[in-house]
Amino acid sequence: MYKIAVLGDRDSIYGFAALGLDIHPVSLSDDVSEAATKLKELAESDYAVIYIIESLAEKLMSEIRSYNTVKLPAIIPIPGASGNTGLGMRMVKKSVEQAVGSDILFRE
Fold first, then answer.
1. Partners of 77 in the beta sheet?
2. Which among 49, 52, 59, 101 could disulfide-bond with 7, CB atoms 3.0 to 4.6 Å apart, if both were Cys?
3. CA–CA separation, 79 vs 72, rounded Å?
């Protein structure tokens, strides 16, 4: 059975444990090697969905892009405790444009 993980700083992801999701706190320091290692570990195990806070996802975009061509896991940026950076919406917009061929969501 597939599972769902949440990756980010403890303050941003702690509440997801109450929903039954597996939380994986990592440091948000400039050295993202710990977070990159944890992301790879989660992606190569039995997680179908990995939520990652946007501020961390921005630092790990090259790693996240390497999973864009595989069926699982779905890596989804979510706002963290520090706020919304807009990365999640930009990624959704890009995915819709690729699937449909035009911007049907925002029409900017």
1. 52
2. 52
3. 22
Q: pLDDT at residue 11 above 70?
A: yes
pLDDT of 78 above 80: yes
In the chain the first and final C-alpha atoms are separated, in Å, by 41
Local structure of residue 21 (DSSP, 8 states):
P
**What is the set of domains in the chain, with CATH numbers?**
3-82 (3.40.50.10580)
Q: What is the pTM of this model?
A: 0.87
User: Cβ neighbours of residue 46 under 8 Å, at least 6 residues apart?
Assistant: 1, 2, 3
Phi, psi of 54 (to 5 degrees): -60, -40
